[in-house]
Amino acid sequence: MESRLEQMVSPANLIRIRRLYRNYFEDLFAMADFELIAFLHPNSLLLSPTLPLPLSSSWLSISQLVREGEGGVDADVVMNKCLDKEIHALLLFKAPLKDPDGGLSTWTADEHDCCKWKGITCNNQTGHVTKLEISNSGLVGEISHSLLNLSYLNHLDLSINSFHGNIPIFIGSMTQLIYLDLSDNSFYGTIPPEFENLTNLQHLQLSYVGRCRVEKIEWLSNLSHLEKLELDGISLAKQNHWVDVILSLPKLSYLSLEGCELSQVMYPYSSSFLNFSSSSSSIEGLYLGNNSLTSSMYRWLFLLTSNKLGYLDLSYNMLDGIPKYLGNLCSLEYLEISNNSAAVQFPDFLNNLSGCTSLSLQWLDASDSQFIESLSNDIQKFSSLEYLDLSHNHLNGSISEKLWELPRLRTLYLSFNNLTVPSPDHLSNISYFQYLDLRSSNIGPLFPKWIQTLKNLTRLDLSNTGISDTIPLEFWDTWPSQLKYLNLSSNNISGKVPDLLSSFANGSKIDLSSNNFHGPILNVSSTLSLLNLSRNKFSGGISFICQIVGGFLSFLDLSHNLFIGQLPDCLWLFKELKVLNLGHNNLFGRLPPSIASLIELEVLYLYKNNFSGELPLSLKNCTSLISLNLGANKFSGNVPVWIGENLSGLYVLILRSNNFFGTIPLQLCQLANLQILDLSMNNLHGTIPSCLSNLTSMIQPRFSQDVKFYTLVRGVAYGSGIYVDHAMIEWQGDEHEFFSTLKLLKTIDLSSNNLTGHIPYEITNLYDLIALSLSKNSLFGEIPQKIGEMKKLLTLDLSRNSFSGRIPSSMSQMTLLNDLDLSFNNFSGRIPSSTQLQSFEPSRYDGNSQLCGLPLTKKCPGDEESEVPPIVGKSKSDAKDIDEFWGWFYVAHGPYRSTSFQKETVEIKRL
């Protein structure tokens, strides 16, 4: 199971995230002229991708201050207050806008100096507003003409808001602008050609401005000072000769045209460029991802590349290789060619890059593509490589020994290939590795002892690598203090874990799930943010969790072990905890009062333990819960009304197999997001609430969201990790553990209680319900006549009650019904004729002496003598029959997860 960021978001959104990350590197390089990064390691540009992104804006401000210093600005000059005219203009700009986040809260008439307002910069000598920068402020509305009164404005940044309407034509009259960024908004219409009047522009960023188009791109040719141009997400499909326009911009150093439908342009350049033997392009950073480009683009790409090119992004295309001229770009440091859909022989790929590019290239991302064959010896030519990502390809064979000899390589991702990883002979060369991801490679069966020599690791992933061995005791004691991520899951590693106490950095993650570790856990690091020990044979108590005092813990999974004892009362330490899974152990006792501190908790899974007592009232403080699974314990008391009143976000509520008594509280009907309600095997009495028809998620075709939390993707801090919830569900007479398909399931199970009364007719309004089980109660009366309108029902179990009357004829319309049990009731009359109802075994109608008609042998009055046809439906003994439910889920959402892959569904990938 892959839960990587690439599977969480669309290619377009992922590219937008990459664009933010990309700026991080550019700011570093921009500062080199001012020697402000001398304190960094010479290679730290690419060795420290975990540095927080906000630093990029800080470094940019430093470089700007230096530039201002070079211009001779007197630091002793007292800033003048801004002019009344400009204050009025800014207040008029603010007036029609919605500002839910308070981004412009400092913009008030009471504060007469607008130079102190957030996002405003003034000239120190004149007081004129020169910069308006309100990016990512949550603003909604249209841009006011009042901005025209800011006559000295040279920097306008309105990006990452919700401005809408047409992009104002009047912006084309703001001729002092040097910097204009309208990206990531909700505009529509045409990019105004009047922008051609902005002849002083150096930076123009219009990426993802909304549903906008370019009528004629020729207006760009007028912007002779342009250095940076971003048009991501704007279609250029009809812009013939756009390459000519780009080449007319003599100072352009940065060009981003991601998602611009470039593959649809018929004539990207004019015939006058056909005979060019070299390119005069000044571009240093070129980003062409998500354009469905094939190798036919290499002819015009040549015109945009020169020895100045340092960054090239060709990701999310359909390229079947690269041309040799890319191997002669002696300044190329960053090459992204990930997520390409055409098969490429990796040795040929390396060979075509093996000119002077092989000496300059520092970063190569070729992940999630169709590279085949081996990781050959040609890799040794790339002596400057610091970052190499070849994960999620089809590489095979043994990794070349030459890979380990690369002197500057610090980050290596080879996961999800069919590679064999031999022990490196040159351990001294790899001792400086920081990130090593060999997930799903062939490393075992022995544990690679050479791993212990990598003293600079911050991330190690050896999950699902075929290791079937014990781990040397010294392994746990020799980790470097900066280690932040250790994943050994989904192997067959055995033995004890003596100590997880030392040498882990703040916010670290440890995943040892799905192995055969045994024995007690004595000590753990106090700074963990993730601890996953599930599906092992650990034993003893769990008081060790009280050692995790750093306040970072967001994920704790100890399920499927042999832990015993009580849940310690130290949960107040975990105010950031989102997932707590203690299921399938031998824990007992009451839930501690400190559970009230888990205000961020979204998943509480205690299934199959021996917890007892009433549910503590303090649990109602956990208002972020979306999945509450307390089944198969010994909880007692009434089903609390506060579950419906306080836990409004619940989509899973499982209280099955406990000792709850009393009636079903009407407050549960307030849980509009509820998709799984399981109160079976308790001592509940009373009637079924008719208000269950208010469970709107069971009416409308919508599905729950997965739990998201901040984590690390390949060392890069951007976005949310995913936890896919799972649960044991009674399904067609057997328990099944649902994983990724759980959020598709919509079920109500009230079986094995003491419920009385009728089935409320309102329940037939739950049109999206998939399973309904009311068996083993004392219900009576007739089945609602409109039950046939529940056309998505796959399973219906009304057995062992006191229902009477005829089986409604509308049930013949339930064509998806795969499992039906009406046995041991008082039904009478003919079983309605339909392919579906006649396909079930006769036993599903047993105990109803007045029923007649197929598939029963009992004839109805007037029926002719006939042979009983063979049963179409599956029997329990028919092992070859395909379960229609799983087939349905396979079509809808892919194959269900086996327990051996649970680790992959919960794997955390972010900081």
From TrEMBL:
InterPro entries noted in UniProt: Leu-rich_rpt (IPR001611), Leu-rich_rpt_typical-subtyp (IPR003591), LRR_dom_sf (IPR032675), LRR_N_plant-typ (IPR013210), RLP23-like (IPR046956)
Example of a GO biological process term: defense response
SMART domains: LRR_TYP
Compartments where located: Cell membrane
Membrane topology note: Single-pass type I membrane protein
Record's keyword terms, sorted: Cell membrane, Glycoprotein, Leucine-rich repeat, Membrane, Repeat, Signal, Transmembrane, Transmembrane helix
GO CC aspect terms: plasma membrane
Pfam families named in the record: LRR_1, LRR_8, LRRNT_2
Ranges of residues in domain Leucine-rich repeat-containing N-terminal plant-type: 84-123
Keyword NAD annotated: no
Keyword Transmembrane helix: yes
Family designation: Belongs to the RLP family.
Record protein name field: Leucine-rich repeat-containing N-terminal plant-type domain-containing protein
Species annotation: Lactuca virosa
Lineage of the species this protein comes from: Eukaryota, Viridiplantae, Streptophyta, Embryophyta, Tracheophyta
